[in-house]
């Protein structure tokens, strides 16, 4: 039985808020931890400021490990860890743990790729001028990589929206939970249609805004 259209917002809006909360909290964690991890991945490589092959191999292995498993498998595999960290394996808190574990290495690789695209001449100027390692990372690498960083951030946000829908399908709440619990299990076509449209609209909106930010940052860098 389909939910009457006037009642749909009462179900959808709280679920949309849960999805926004999940993605927002996860992206804060992802940026705070994924950015330094990406910086280390680049700078411990042969092209970096302080090449350390052994350290780079370990960090790369950790990053690849987090990206190796499909998210649904990762979600199930880390249930004991999630239970230990947040005390539950359902709800928004439980979803944040596996989403962060999936998002951090993904963003770290995007940060690494963005920094790698920075011309080596810029880094060399910083070295010749006597800048410290931290100053070069901040003022040369990260500053010049801003367009790529924002592009990577956009990609990561869209991925986290997708992951939140998967997490919601197994009890984390949000649009995914609503789509499965009402749209699929109760054969509610109205709810399913609205959930699909919302997920599409979210992804498209994030991509549109991200592209505009990237163009603006790129234009500012050229002037």
Keywords:
mainly alpha, 10 helices, MetI-like fold, 83% helix, 223 residues
Explained architecture:
This protein is mostly helical. It has a single domain (6-222), classed as Orthogonal Bundle (MetI-like fold). Helix content is 83%, strand content 0%. The chain is built from ten helices and no strands. The N and C termini lie far apart (58 Å). The mean pLDDT is 92.
How confident overall, as mean pLDDT?
92
Rg of Cα set? 20 Å
Shape, please? elongated
Which stretches of 5+ consecutive residues score pLDDT under 50?
none
Task: Write the topology of this structure.
Elements: H1 8-43, H2 53-68, H3 71-77, H4 79-86, H5 91-116, H6 120-128, H7 133-144, H8 146-172, H9 174-184, H10 189-222
Helix pairs in contact: 1-5, 1-8, 1-9, 2-5, 4-5, 5-8, 6-7, 8-9, 8-10, 9-10
Précis, in short:
This protein is an all-alpha fold and 223 residues long.
